[in-house]
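Our consortium's second objective concerns turning raw sequence data into structural hypotheses that experimental partners can test. To show how far this objective has progressed, the report includes one record in full. It was chosen at random from the queue rather than selected for favorable results. The single chain below, 80 residues long, was entered without modification.
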Amino acid sequence: MSIIGRYITVHPEIQNGQPVFSGTRVPVQTLFWHLEKGITIKEFLEDFPSVTKEQAIGVLEIANKIVNSAQLGQIYETVN
């Protein structure tokens, strides 16, 4: 299983194919919405007990790797 697969699942029958934390129905985007609103990871985990701290940190580490990737320019051009 890939590092992404350890933390994130994408399946058309779960939340209409939105990326969710593996083993849950909690969209990954929910973590980022919480952080954008100034809500701590601890509070996020209290709100969504099916998500583990390891999963939340793992998703943030993946996001960090993407943002700091040498290929970020290519990713940016692809999505724009």
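The partners drew two points from this record. The first strand starts at residue 8 and ends at 9. The chain has a mean pLDDT of 89. Both points have been shared with the crystallography group to help prioritize constructs.
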